[in-house]
Design brief:
heterodimer, A: 251 residues, mainly alpha, 10 helices, B: 303 residues, alpha/beta, six-stranded mixed sheet, four-stranded antiparallel sheet, 34% helix, elongated, transmembrane (chain A), ABC transporter permease (chain A), membrane (chain A), transmembrane helix (chain A), ATP-binding (chain B)
Chain lengths: 251, 303
């Protein structure tokens, strides 16, 4: 508990988490607002309210989580941390828990905020959240952010540099996994096992507009919750590697 | 007490610290002296468990740093004053450190007061001058009221007032019975700050002794003699078996003799003396003599 409090103080005594959260909120909710404003009243579906949160805002949250570690390396406060808490694994785990929790809460705010703004701008559309699939589609964003944050922190610990970690995360999430689909035949099969593709699969809302959503056309071998578990598994595996490396490495 | 036993650190084929053994006793300031690149900082990082020794170990009150429970209460360290987030306030920096070792919140205000930073506690550490950053670093080191303190080059780049303040501060800490290890490449600074010296060069221990012993053993005592009749005095001194060297503007540097002896000889032979002053060996000379061939980066002087 003490270490969680330490990481909370550290995170909230600098400005970057506030800026990143605000940016994620503006991008996520803002994109939904633009879509809602440009769609005929009554035509808006729940499936399009999470474009902003699951794509654009997710990237910002990944950056925020990576920054939580890389700035510590940049300013060597990680050394001050390891002096105060020589058990590096618990210090870094505490950071991961705090950042992942904040990312999760932020995800819920952005997801439900997006639905809210869509309702305001397009009151005639049916945006009610009724089925379990619809709940998963909206509320699941928080889980995605939390797991994404774990993955981003792992990358941050391994790379240690802000520029490198951010580049890896953004290219991976926004470019690489999509580009692999270009490979004839095998591409789509590989995509079924890529972590961010599985994350998107988890959010997918079945029914009419399935084709509009990210990850459409990929034959996933896992159930939607299975995909989330897979995404979480990759994130945790990467974190374990990062923790082992951090423990052995000279700080 | 700090105890290093066969401490070794290799980076690939480079040996940064080579089989280093020493002890640092409480109650006095121990200087950790060596030229740049001698391995002082690496040794300090190994003492603090930041770097993993290739071989050997180092114990603080009998335990490795990483096994200390709430380490800030045992060891306070200032390795680099810039180890702060520039956009975090001085108080917030100390607050998370205090929290990490379950220290009461009012310790933060106490140490801020002790180093004179109360006025600027709410300001971001990134805007601090070097002197203020050093004070913040010292505040962090004092947070847990530790028995052992380590400072790496604490006076580097400070103005005379800051240097005096840190020197007095360290001596007071030692006088309270704490173990104080301070590294420096500034010999003159160590001569007035430390009473015990650990001297290293190229990662190897050169000597561990008291500062006085170190100077005495390394430089023979010499006496400066100025006189209009040096031509007369010189041969007399040489006859007595003393070594006489020509100095600047008509002076002699005599080694092996005390000023009393030289004065007596001069009086007995009616030689006029203008100056007769014992020269205490400087720490610089002692240091150069001992580490002459252990400097990592040589530069030819006056070539």
């Amino acid at each position: 508990m003490t270490l969680l409090a330490v990481e909370r103080i550290k995170l909230f005594s600098t400005r970057s988490p506030y800026w990143c959260s605000a940016l994620a909120l503006v991008l996520g909710v803002g994109l939904t607002a633009i879509i809602a404003a440009s769609t005929d009243n009554g035509q808006l579906t729940l499936g399009v309210t999470q474009f902003g949160s699951s794509q654009l805002a997710l990237s910002v949250v990944l950056v925020m989580a990576a920054l939580a570690v890389t700035t510590e390396y940049r300013f060597s406060t990680i050394r001050a941390t390891f002096l105060a808490v020589p058990n590096r694994t618990s210090a870094l785990l505490a950071k991961t828990v705090v950042v992942a929790f904040i990312a999760g809460v932020l995800g819920e705010i952005i997801a439900f905020g997006s639905v809210g703004i869509a309702k305001v701008l397009s009151p005639a559309s049916d945006l009610a959240i009724n089925t379990s699939g619809e709940w998963r589609h909206v509320a699941g964003v928080g889980l995605l952010y939390g797991i994404g944050a774990i993955l981003a922190i792992a990358v941050g610990i391994l790379v240690r540099q802000t520029a490198g970690a951010v580049a890896i995360l953004l290219v991976w999430n926004m470019l690489l996994e999509q580009l692999i689909g270009i490979i004839p035949k095998a591409g789509v099969k590989i995509q079924a096992w890529l972590p961010f593709m599985n994350a998107n699969h988890f959010l997918q809302l079945g029914g009419d507009n399935a084709a509009e959503q990210a990850g459409a056309g990929i034959d996933f071998k896992l159930s939607q919750w299975g995909s989330l578990g897979y995404f979480a598994g990759v994130a945790v595996a990467l974190l374990v590697v990062a923790l082992i490396v951090a423990k052995r490495r000279d700080a | 007490m700090i105890e290093a036993i066969g401490l070794t650190k290799r980076y690939g084929r480079t040996v940064a610290v080579d089989d280093l053994s020493f002890t640092v006793q409480p109650g006095r300031v121990t200087g950790f002296l060596g030229p740049n690149g001698a391995g002082k900082s690496t040794t300090m990082r190994m003492i603090l468990g930041l770097d993993r020794p290739t071989a050997g170990r180092v114990l603080i009150d009998g335990k490795p740093y990483t096994e200390l429970n709430r380490p800030l209460q045992t060891v306070g360290a200032l390795l680099d004053a810039k180890w702060v987030h520039p956009n975090r306030s001085a108080r917030a920096h100390l607050r998370w450190l205090a929290k990490s070792n379950n220290l009461p919140g009012n310790r933060v205000d106490q140490v801020l007061e002790a180093v004179g930073l109360t006025q600027v506690a709410g300001k971001n550490a990134g805007g601090f001058s070097l002197g203020m950053s050093q004070r913040l670093g010292i505040a962090a080191a004092l947070l847990g009221d530790p028995k052992v303190l380590l400072f790496d080059e604490p006076v580097n780049g400070l103005d005379p007032e800051g240097i005096l303040w840190i020197r007095t501060f360290m001596q007071n800490l030692a006088a309270e019975g704490r173990t104080v290890l301070v590294s420096s490449h500034l010999l003159s600074e160590m001569a007035v700050t430390a009473s015990e010296l650990i001297v290293i060069g190229r990662g190897k221990l050169i000597t561990q002794s008291s500062t006085q012993e170190f100077i005495d053993s390394a430089t023979g005592n010499t006496v400066l003699v100025r006189s209009p009749q040096l031509f007369k005095l010189g041969p007399l001194l040489v006859d007595k078996g003393f070594t006489v060297r020509d100095g600047a503007d008509g002076s002699f540097s005599v080694s092996g003799a005390t000023s009393d002896q030289i004065g007596d000889i001069a009086a007995a032979n009616g030689v006029v003396l203008h100056e007769l002053s014992p020269q205490r060996g400087s720490l610089e000379e002692a240091f150069m003599q001992l580490t002459g061939d252990a400097v990592e980066y040589h530069a030819e002087i006056g070539k």
